[in-house]
Amino acid sequence: MPNRDFDIVLWGATGATGRRAAHHLARRCGESGLRLAIGGRNRQKLEDVRTNLPGADGKIGILVGDSLDPASMQDVAAKARVVVSTVGPFALYGSNLVEACAQNGTHYCDLTAEPQWMRAMIDAHDKRARETGARIVHSCGHDSIPSDLGVQFLQEAAAERYGVPCNRIATRVTRMKGGFSGGTAASFLNAMRLRDTDPDFSALSLDPYALCPEDERDGPDGPDRMMPIQITWDADLKAWTKPYFMGPMNSKVVRRTNAIMAYPYGRDFRYEETGLTRGGIGGWFSAMGSTLFGRLFLIAMANPATRGFLKRKVLPKSGEGPSKEVRESGSYEIVLVGEVPDGNILKARITGKGDPGVRSTTMMLTEAALCLAEDADKIAVAGGFWTPASAMGALLRDRITTHAGMSFELIDSQ
Ligand SMILES: NC(=O)c1ccc[n+]([C@@H]2O[C@H](COP(=O)([O-])OP(=O)(O)OC[C@H]3O[C@@H](n4cnc5c(N)ncnc54)[C@H](OP(=O)(O)O)[C@@H]3O)[C@@H](O)[C@H]2O)c1
């Protein structure tokens, strides 16, 4: 890669996640001597953010541009070795930057959880990214790093212990404490709009293999339903499942990892991701309550009148997010249960400190950007569109356990 002005450019440093990411990145780049710039569309806001950053004594650059202006995105991509973006909804604002990174051979990561946009970006720019060597990695936040790296972790353990991968893994979200930001609300609202206006959107959302390469969109899993009507009993964990909004999205990423890595989990690999309550009648009522609440929320979001009310009065606006107290007291836990072909079961637990929607997400994103910048020579894959596990795998897992308050451990296997 020719000389660039900056090792990392954080694009969107003034938003709810961007401000947190700027803080974490400034500290980490200060430690390692990487050249950092923060970018966005408003110079004054960027100056204000920079003033409060650790190590801001003239070392952190500022880039001003507009995501909707292709020329300014070319300028950003040409100046950086790695671009990390929080400017979303990505389907509205992200395309010019991804194109510019693919063209300039600039590594890139972001926080998108919008499969239809990821599909469009892969189709449009994968070929160019392969030619230029740009490693493009979407979904480097809470969606989908814990799921993607968690499955890879459990599969490595299965291979080590049994010599074969699990042909079935269920990921259960067992704890989720925190809030969400204005950008997440905007992305959800945009998805609701697309559901009403784009005939391909629902088909792609339901397709479990929508993010797999063209000839590989086939396998044993059924449709990804965001809000299944039935709740199910998890016999491995002896508790009732409940819907998990991000399950369909994370599942698509896990299946893409398997497909683009030439099926290390096997072609018959089945995957699902839901929430989990507990056993007994209390667990059933809790699961049913969550299902009903989720359905009512979706119905309210589908109706223009109630959607308008929620947008104005309830949902956070751009730049807003959970309070410092919520961010710091938040946490989450997911449990993965895998089964190898002879019936042996393995379980893993993944935990994160800090609220998943902003604090933990921004630390994971930051570490992904640092991994692309600092571990460039250790990353095994070349240019192209990758997932967190396929591009960075154990390198990123080590980083987020050391620097982002996360843990990966095997639990009571039989
Ligand atoms: N995957 C996950 O787990 C996860 C978690 C959290 C968030 N997210 C996603 O991350 C994204 C950001 O969320 P957020 O809450 O931080 O959003 P936000 O607070 O609305 O921030 C958006 C940022 O984009 C900037 N921006 C908007 N339009 C721009 C343009 N035309 N040119 C340049 N910059 C522009 C804003 O700049 P101004 O300050 O000048 O307005 C701001 O810095 C969303 O897409 C959200 O869905 C994902």
TrEMBL record:
Gene3D superfamilies from the UniProt entry: NAD(P)-binding Rossmann-like Domain
Saccharopine dehydrogenase NADP binding domain residues: 8-137
GO cellular component: plasma membrane
Classification via Pfam families: Sacchrp_dh_NADP
SUPFAM superfamilies tied to this protein: NAD(P)-binding Rossmann-fold domains (SSF51735)
Any single biological process term in GO: glycolipid biosynthetic process
Tree of life domain: Bacteria
PANTHER family, per database record: SACCHAROPINE DEHYDROGENASE-LIKE OXIDOREDUCTASE
Record protein name field: Saccharopine dehydrogenase
Source organism of the structure: Actibacterium pelagium
